[in-house]
Design brief:
globular, single chain, 43% helix
Amino acid sequence: MSGIIWLASYPKSGNTWFRVLLLNLLSEAACPVDINDLSGIPIASSRTLLDEVLGFDSADLCDEANARSRPEVYAFHAKTSTKNLIYKVHDAYTRLPNGQPIFPPDVTAASVYIIRNPLDVCVSYAHHLGHTGFDGVIEIMADPNFVISASKTRYNAQLHQTLGSWREHVLSWTHGPTPVLVVRYEDMKHHAVETFLTVAQFLGLPRDSDRIAKAIRFSAFDELKHQEDEDGFQERLYGSFFRKGGVGTWRDVLNQKQAMRIIHDHADVMRQYGYITASRDPIF
């Protein structure tokens, strides 16, 4: 049996960028991977993954039935694969009513959790959603019942996903039952080679500095934005998906009250991962 590697994160935390980096590392091509062909690392909540195993349209099932199917579908993929599989995940690490994890530990090889300063997540997520201001996203990020792809009035290519609050999302994966490597978005930006060498070692991938440097170059923000400007990006909702990708951009747009609300809601986890000091002063 081969295992599954989960690339997990709260939305707008760098998961897509990490996914492109990893695909460029695994590729031996002389040009960057196409951002509209990331099938080598599919999204775990994609209906296609369920449909091809179930043999019928998962849209005909209710959310609860689809959720019950997910662990079995992932186990089937792992058991029928001759190599480790890699899936992108935005779900929190949750359990079904019977206690079974949606992401089965027995077919899990490892998990990588990509974390980003929630102050910057708020700004990026607001632009991603298009119709929700910063105050609305601040409420979303604190909502223990927050879900995505939950519309009952239109078809979603993605399955219903439970996220919970930003804080709860981080803890669900970092305190889960599977081996996990936490990767900070800010370290990917400022210490890219060293960070990805650590990732490669954790996942048992080639630890070749030159190859990693090439993957980082092929995944540069300018390259991703250029591809999106030329051909669009099928995973975006509104505006540009690869908008700025900066660190500390929240300082230019969030007011003090908004920033303090985010810190208040998520202080313990922000402190744990180096986003605020013991006196709750922002670091990035």
